[in-house]
Amino acid sequence: MCGRAYETYTEEELSIQYLNRRPLRLDGFRATFNLAPTERSPVVLVRDGQRTIDLLRWGLVPFWAKSVEAAARYSLINARGEEIADKRSYAKAFRARRCVVPLSGFYEWKRDGTRKRPFAIQRQDRAIMSVAGVWELWQPSGAAVLFSFSIVTTSANPLMAEIHDRMPVVLAEGDIEHWLDPEVHEPERLLPLVRPCPSEWLTAYEVSTAVNSPTHDSPDVLRPISTDDQPAS
């Protein structure tokens, strides 16, 4: 599961990492410390044979949905890697419309008795995390096209297993080109990439429960929790 993330990078950093320094201008883009489903995020994809970055809605609206409201009932923010090649909502996108979601990190909640403790997870080297995704375009009759995406998830690596049993698929630098390649359609060539990344790539630390509400979108939500922040027992 991945239901909240943060993106504190700049357009220049995206350009350097994914576009070989080609100029990038994303209208409406801003850093966010508490990205929630239905909000827009930069997404790396290949269009007309060229790698590009666009802002897409987080929460895939499947091609068969009759309305965005109807699709929202399915909560398609994550695509389980174990079923992505066969599930109706994702199978076509998996074969033809894959993307990379650049994250600075993501949040996950650890169950502790009746409490859920939020943790921020990011790369050890603080680099942008290249998360596997699939995207879809959807256009109801007479309405504008909506572009949306889901994050691909897999079983947790040992570090994440201490917090949650699922995690996003974090791609190695050398796997990004293959994941994005529009000429690759066969599941047997793609599914080997749908796996947990090594634990040593990541670091995790506890943060305040302020992150529970997406209205709290400031650097404070990323501040490591201290013993003074713990609620009284």
Task: Give a quick set of tags describing it.
233 residues, alpha+beta, hypothetical protein yedk fold, five-stranded antiparallel beta sheet, 6 helices, 12 strands, globular
Q: How many DSSP H or I helices?
A: 6
Please trace the helix and strand order, writing H or E for each element: EHEEEHEHEEEEEHEHHE
Kindly report how far apart the N and C termini lie: 29 Å
Which term fits the overall shape? globular
How would the blueprint of this fold be written?
Blueprint: E1 5-7, H1 11-18, E2 32-35, E3 40-47, E4 50-58, H2 68-72, E5 78-80, H3 91-96, E6 98-103, E7 105-112, E8 115-123, E9 129-138, E10 146-155, H4 158-161, E11 166-168, H5 176-180, H6 187-190, E12 202-206
Parallel strand pairs: 4-10, 5-10
Antiparallel strand pairs: 1-2, 1-7, 3-4, 6-9, 7-8, 8-12, 9-10, 10-11
